[in-house]
Amino acid sequence: MKREENSKTDEPIELAAYIGLDWADKQQAISLRAAGSKKVERLKLANKPEAIMEWITELRTRFKGAKVGIALEQSKGSVISALMSHEFIVLYPVNPSTLAKYRAAFRPSGAKDDPSDADYLEELVELHRNKLTAWLPEDEEIRLLKMLTEGRRKFVDQKTKLTNQLIALLKQYYPQAIELAGDLDTVRGCAFLGKWTTLDDLKKAGSEDLTRFYEEQGFRGKDKIQERVQRVMRAVPLTTDRAIVEASAIFVKVIVGQLQPLIAMIHEIDRRIDEAFKKNPDREIFISFPGAGKVLAPRLSAVVGSDRDKFESALELQSLSGIAPVTESSGDSLWVHKRWACNHFVRQTFHEFAGRSLSQSRWARAFYSELRKRGKAHHAAVRALAYKWIRIIYRCWKNKAPYSEEKYIESLKRRGSPLVALLAVA
Fold first, then answer.
1. What is the tens place of the pLDDT at every residue in 6-38?
2. Among the four 6, 58, 176, 409, which has the fewest Cβ within 10 Å?
3. CATH label, 2-137, candidates 3.40.30.10, 3.40.50.1820, 3.90.1150.10, 3.30.420.10
């Protein structure tokens, strides 16, 4: 979203409705006043993605796509992320301390009939939005890229789930197929199981048919193909129980029937992401990060966006992503844990990128190895690495400068960073 600074003398953005959204663990309290109306409408939504999406659709229909202003606490990063993709929504993130002071100034009693936080937020966006910072929607290309990359992640998760089901079934009656078919989540893996759903079917195929299949599906090396054919000829069934074999074969066909169109769909989404990312003016920045590649570079670009004024600091991006840890205290106890309320796709993007960077970045590998030596678990170490990477990504993005491993390591040396000593022994 683009951030628009409004001074006291600026004309406020024209809105069709003013909305205060108080997001809690189990449900959302919403206060809405349509422009020109004296009535405040109040409702509650279940804390579920489908509920918020249905409400957003109702807003779009009711106000015919005209801009609506939504005020909510700045700390609610997961909600902000969910709302940022909609072109008619103008967000007004409110600092929690601002909301607390506003509440104390006008309703200090704390009585049950006092207005809710959603009411206060609605008042802020209606009466004082010229003193707030408005986040306007990103351009269409960035929103398209975000929707495509986020959708792709969901379809990949579905594919992984189906593939795991497939492997579990094959282990019961036809384990040879797990290796002989190649990767089961690919076109040729599905083609193999589509032709031969049981070991008996496979052995009846004969060496010529098997060889032809492997050649047509792009398996390389005649020796390797012949070795696979020989393994088929020598294979013995794990079970001859007809109930297990026939039922499992039917279930395999059902799963393969779901996997094939899903694989094709993911390929089509990849093509569209590639087209959209080629038009991205920040493309060279995001492909410069080690390990980003053709999958994660567009995702990083989508979650960071294009407006350089959106985040005032790297910490804002770290908090929005859910990578920034949360410190809590109670009495004499103090503990730090990962942020639970966040956009999981954004957090997952930075986490996956940090993991990929280990094979291509010297300092990242040294940093991760040191944390592991100190007893950090793998994912905790990767999160800590992602936290550092976000600072670097933010700075490169802000300066419109591609990343350089050599320049970064030189900057570490100039600052006398402890990482330099780790690099010497890495």
1. 433 356 689 999 999 998 767 889 999 999 999
2. 58
3. 3.30.420.10
